[in-house]
Structure formats: C-alpha cells, structure tokens
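Page 37, continued from 36.
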C-alpha cells in the first residue's frame, strides 16, 4: 500500500478523552473513531489489525477441530426466557421490540441460540463430540463505557460451544480450549495467563479467564512469578489426546494465579515471598464448563448407546477479538507509539523514501516495494512529499515492526537502512538482503 493513496488520519496531539495508552494511541494512529459512547468505527489501519487477529483465531480454532458458523446479532427473547436468563441477565442486555411487538435482544452471548440449533439437528451420541464457534459482534450496555475498545459497548468476540455426552468428555473439551487459547495468544505475541475465575451470568463451576498483565487492567491479580516463565512454544499438541491436553492444562494451572474475585490469601502466603506478585490484568478470554445448565431446560437431548435420552454436557469459550487490539497496545508501546508484534502487524514493513522525487531513491523504493510484495508480504510505502522527520514519526506511531529507509547517500554506497521498531537497532544492507531478511523473519511465524 502506498501511503499517499491510503486513508490514515493520524493526530499530532493526544485526544483529551483518552484515559489509557491504548485508547490514546488508537485514536492518534487513525485506527478508530468514536461514533457514540462505547461504539467505534474501525478505520482502515485498525480494521487490518482486527482482521489479522480474527484470522489467527479462526486458524487455531479449526486446528483444534472446531467448526465455524455465523449466528445473527439479534436474538429472540423467547429462547432466553426458556433458559431462565432473560430476566436474570441484568441491564447490560439491550432489549428491543420489533414492529410486530415481539421481544428481541442484541445478543451479549449465544448459549441459548446455539443450544436451539443443536437440539433441532442433533439427536444421537454418534454425532458427538461437537464444537461450534463463530466470530460476531456483541453488545453489552455498559453503564460507564471507557478505555476505548477495552470497555466498549459493541465488541467483536469469538464464542464457541462444545456438546459432549459425558462430563469427562466435556472437561476434555475444556482442556482442549485452554491449550488452543494459549497457542492463539502466543501467535499474537502475547502472554495471557490462565486464572481461576468467577463464572458470572454464564454459569458453571469450572472457569478460567486469560489475563494480560498491564497497569491499566481492570482486575487485580495475584500470582506465582514462575507462571510467567511457562511457554507452549513450538510444542506439538494432539488435540484428540485427553492425557496430553490435561497435562498442558495442569502445567499452567498448578501454579497459583487468581483474580481478586477468587483470591485465597492463605494459599497465596504459602508461596515463597520472593515469588509472590500482585499486579493488574486485562481479561482477553474465558472458558466455561457448565454441564447441563442450558441443555436440560431447553431439551437438548441425545440418545445414548443404550437408547436413553440424556441432556448433553456443554461449555462455552470466548475470546475478545476487538479487546485484544487494545491489550496488545497496552503490552507493546513506548513513548513514540505502538510496537506491533510481527504476528499481528497491519503491514509487514514500512518503506521510507527520504527524498521523494529523486530518481534513484524513487526507483529503489519501487524495487523494494515490488520485491516485498513478490515474497507475499504487505509493505506500507511512505511516498508522500513530506519531510523525513514527519515520516519517521508516522512510522513510529503506527508501530510497524520493521522499517527500510532509503536515501541518496546510502544508495551511493549500495545500501539501505533496516531498523527494528522494538529495539531501535539499525543495520545497513544491500536492498535485496533487506528484503530477504524481512522475508526470513515472517517465514518463521
């Protein structure tokens, strides 16, 4: 993409309404625009990041054997009345009536709708296990929406639902989701710590939420410092292997890590003092096992091998896709702007032409642009008639991981400058070697 033809409405000044870093930088970098309290338009740069995150989530869900579908944003209140949650959910639910005076709602979650789909089409244990998921916009009418996309009213979320014959099978689905989520966050360049949590209005006794440590987190967290040393890494996971999935789950959850809602001061004090940590965290996902909470009242029954009809065991699993954008920025920024991890960057590299209009510089930039695209990469070429300082400031603000700087002086020596946004280190390389270096970095992801 050529910056002269792109829509990137960056701001020079910090917006007064932004209270935290991610909100401020998303506004300044031209990623979002507020349309109403807690409701945002995603501008081109922000939309690219959102779609990259969505793609990673899709890939890891399907890698774990989960099947995508798409459910609507509006739901019939009748389903929620059937489950008993319509009156219990609270004022966060946006309730509306259509022109036929039927009670409707803008879905905050989809347990009822997915259960209705299941009971309409599945009636035998032979069709189990089954996990369905979608990525869809949700609405929760927060009383005080704030912090940009971190605490918005409208948000993009992946929610998945497993259906299993027995509790044992459903707990395997729970462990499988925990592992798939850890792999998802690692691909995004995040370390999200699973913590025992409160189930809230979803229900159930087994639940973990995933938190990214950040000063602006809404939850206070207490944890053993060793939990931050555990990585899934390149470990191969057989998602059908119950023992392997349970082992990974136990390795992460054996160490103490709790939110303030479930914190046990006595257990925490048993940890050696030098390993006790108290911090704040941003929730970016949660998994639940809730058994037959929805299947029993809604009649989601299947026939067992003995012919008995029993309610299926269920769980639900959510990742806040749009919230992750804010969490990533909170975890990856400096005083100049955003620092995107390679796995989620909106563009793989930036090209800065220090002397637009110079024949040699223009030709070199065009060559780099074409070479990166030929490697399957997506560069952002700053070809504007703008001073060098402004171009560098824009690249630092939007946070692309790598920048190639092209100028007449370097070209006379046959080199361009390759700079890492994260470390600030620069290296002079021949143009073709700079392209090869960037291609090698992304090939390893």
């Amino acid at each position: 993409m050529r910056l002269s033809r792109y829509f990137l409405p960056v701001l020079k000044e910090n917006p007064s309404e932004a209270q935290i870093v991610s909100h401020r930088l998303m506004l300044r970098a031209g990623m979002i625009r507020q349309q109403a309290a807690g409701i945002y338009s995603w501008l081109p740069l922000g939309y690219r990041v959102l779609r990259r995150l969505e793609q990673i989530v899709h890939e890891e869900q399907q890698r774990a054997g989960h099947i995508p579908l798409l459910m609507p944003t509006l739901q019939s209140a009748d389903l929620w009345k059937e489950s008993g949650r319509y009156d219990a959910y609270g004022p966060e639910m946006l309730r509306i009536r259509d022109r036929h005076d039927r009670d409707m709602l803008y879905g905050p979650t989809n347990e009822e709708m997915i259960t209705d789909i299941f009971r309409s089409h599945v009636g035998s244990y032979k069709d189990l296990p089954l996990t369905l998921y979608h990525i869809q916009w949700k609405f929760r009418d927060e009383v005080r929406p704030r912090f940009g996309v971190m605490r918005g009213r409208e948000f993009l979320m992946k929610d998945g639902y497993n259906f299993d014959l027995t509790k044992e099978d459903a707990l395997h689905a729970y462990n499988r989701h925990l592992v798939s989520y850890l792999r998802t966050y690692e691909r995004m360049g995040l370390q999200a710590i699973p913590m025992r949590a409160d189930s809230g209005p979803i229900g159930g006794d087994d639940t973990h939420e995933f938190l990214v440590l950040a000063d602006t987190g809404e939850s206070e967290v207490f944890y053993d410092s060793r939990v931050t040393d555990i990585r899934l890494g390149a470990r191969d996971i057989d998602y059908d292997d119950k023992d392997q999935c349970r082992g990974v789950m136990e390795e992460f959850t054996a160490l103490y890590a709790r939110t303030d809602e479930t914190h046990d001061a006595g257990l925490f004090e048993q940890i050696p003092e030098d390993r006790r940590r108290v911090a704040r965290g941003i929730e970016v996902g949660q998994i639940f096992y809730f058994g037959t909470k929805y299947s029993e009242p809604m009649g989601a029954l299947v026939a067992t091998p003995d012919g008995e009809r029993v309610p299926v065991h269920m769980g639900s699993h959510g990742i806040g896709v749009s919230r992750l954008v804010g969490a990533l920025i909170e975890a990856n920024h400096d005083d100049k702007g955003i620092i995107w991890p390679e796995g989620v960057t909106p563009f793989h590299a930036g090209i800065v032409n220090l002397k637009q209009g110079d024949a040699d510089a223009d030709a070199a930039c065009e060559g780099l642009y074409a070479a990166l695209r030929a490697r399957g990469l997506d560069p952002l070429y700053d070809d504007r008639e703008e001073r060098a300082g402004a171009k560098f400031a824009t690249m630092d603000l939007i946070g692309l991981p790598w920048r190639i700087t092209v100028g007449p002086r370097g070209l006379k020596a046959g080199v361009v400058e390759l700079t890492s946004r994260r470390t600030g280190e620069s290296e002079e390389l021949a143009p073709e070697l700079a392209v090869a270096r960037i291609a090698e970095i992304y090939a390893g992801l």
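The CA atoms of residues 133 and 412 lie 55 Å apart. Flag for discussion at group meeting. The longest helix spans residues 167-187.
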